[in-house]
Amino acid sequence: MQHGIYYAYWEHEWAGDYKHYIRKVSELGFDILEIAAGPLPEYSRTDLEELGKCAADAGVRLTVGYGPSPDHNVGSEDPAVRKNALRFYEDLFERMQLINATLIGGALYSCWPIDYSVEPDKARDWDNSVRGVAQLGKIARQYGIEVLGMECINRFENHLLNTAQEGVAFVKAVQQLEPEASNVKVMLDTFHMNIEEESIGSAIRAAGSLLGHFHTGECNRMVPGQGHMPWREIGDALRDIQYNGAVVMEPFVMPGGQVGRDIRVWRKLRDDISEEALDQDAKAALVFQRYMLR
Ligand SMILES: [Mn+2]
Predict the structure, then answer these.
(1) What is the CA radius of gyration of the chain?
(2) Cα distances (Å, whole numbers) of residue 249 to 41, 119, 182
């Protein structure tokens, strides 16, 4: 099991100096830095190669997170949008290859957050998304992408995959349609599970061998260990399914900027939000998480 953290913990915008965060998380003792896909299309080939080298030199693995914009929805009803989305992802996968990133997770089957001003048609969107993700998985394979994490997220952010059970049904439907899309996996996040699942342990066991990526955080998105998530139950379930993949904490504790708006952080979740204090929390959370989930 490798432990990581999402760079946006320290940022107000969905971009940042990833080299700075590679060095920081390496010093804090993490194995993985998760970065946002959004800025990568702006990077030159040289920028990407340098980023990959920086990570390799620091011994940090890069994973990628993405909340797809509506024009990158592979399950859109509009064929032009689906086509545009696949083109976007193919370019992104090529960029990921240059930084040796083999895992991407998020609501890749749809967009984030979904626009609920129009009532969603879940059955229709599900079918479109299964077909779109089947193609996505096949394309990703050509670029060495080993995990496409279908993140099961709460009802307020998307309508398609709210529970692990739905995630499993979705991934099985994709793999049935396209056997080459075996890189399409279930992705769970304790923050979302806390809202949607009857039992967090059962949800993890339901994902079982299909679990490809795991996000952690407290119920209010503070770092693991500072709230009341059932970490013992989570650890037991991950051990039961012999999960040996990435576990990336995704804390958000600061209001402000586009990150604060998108994540709906309207208050400081801890009194001291200086970089030093955030670093200390991350370090303590890593010790806690390694211990609880080992
Ligand atoms: Mn997440």
Answers:
(1) 18
(2) 25, 32, 25
Task: Give the tens place of pLDDT for each residue, 202-228.
Answer: 999 999 999 999 999 999 999 999 999
- Phi/psi zone of residue 285: left (φ > 0), alpha (ψ -120 to 50 degrees), beta? alpha
CA-to-CA separations, 256 to 34, 131, 138, 173, 190, in angstroms, rounded? 21, 37, 38, 39, 23
**Residues classed as catalytic:** 151, 250
* Rounded distance from Cα 249 to ligand 1 centre (Å): 8
- What is the predicted pLDDT for the residue at 129? 98
For the chain, how many helices (H) and strands (E)? Answer: 10, 8
Domains of the chain: 2-293 (3.20.20.150)
C-alpha to C-alpha distances, 138 to 103, 135, 187, nearest whole angstrom: 14, 5, 18
Position 99 scores a pLDDT of: 98
Quote the ligand 1 centre to 108 CA distance (angstroms): 12
pTM of the prediction? 0.98
Phi and psi at residue 63, in whole multiples of 5°? -120, 165
* Span from the CA of 164 to the centroid of ligand 1 (angstroms): 13
